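Notebook entry, structure prediction.
Reason for the run: the old model in the group folder had no record of what sequence produced it. Starting over properly, with the input documented here first.
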Amino acid sequence: MYVILSVLALAALAVSARWTWWRPAAPGLRVLCYHKIGSPPPGSRLKELWVSPEKFRAQVKYLLDHGYTTILFSDLLKAQKGEAPLPEKAVLITFDDGYENNYLHAWPILRELGAKGNVYVVFNTIGKVNSWHNPASEPWVNMATLAQLKEMQASGVIEYGSHTMNHPHLSALKPEDAAWEIAESKRQLEALFGREMSAFAYPYGDGAYVPAIRQMALDAGYVFDFSFKQGKTPWPWDRSVTIDRLFIRGGDNNWDLALQLERGASRL
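New structure, fully documented this time:
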């Protein structure tokens, strides 16, 4: 019996060690990365990119109940310029791509709970579909329309950053084409929304750690550039590295969220 109990205890410890509860807290800026809020369509192979509205509400409520302050890109910009300090437990909620489900599900929850969010928009897919996917392997879904994006901005709940013109793998492009994707999206989005696009996120995270491509983002005039790498980035930030993010998966619960916020990852 003792041997059986010992084996069971070791097995339980091994399973629990997959979570990062045993790691020390990691300092740095907390940036949550979401994509789609809703239910994945039949046949989707990317179900982990979908977080249900119920889970999203619970996660935002967890943040607010535990003293976190959700901030906008403009708040981060003020802090970077030394114009205002960041709240002690600041967190950026970000959404990649600009889906219609952000408007239908995420925005109402943020607005109701008094939280803020930020969306990286792919300019050429506004009001269309996520055409960077092959519909034979991943069903297309609708992107937010211009009217929906402007409504969210007018509410003061949502701000925007750039996610290129077409969502390409930047490292696969000719240098001049990659530079155009990065700079032209900033120019077009600023004209569309009448405000600075201070933040840029690399599609797929591709190029975030390629010096020549990262320099294109800095040369385009972005203040902040965000990777798709899991983790937290030291703050104050000296711009020598991209800003990492905390990827929230569809299967994550509030314990995963808590570990991400404190440890920089929830699971090994």
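Summary: Residues 26-263 form a domain with the TIM Barrel fold (CATH 3.20.20.370).
The old model has been moved to the deprecated folder.
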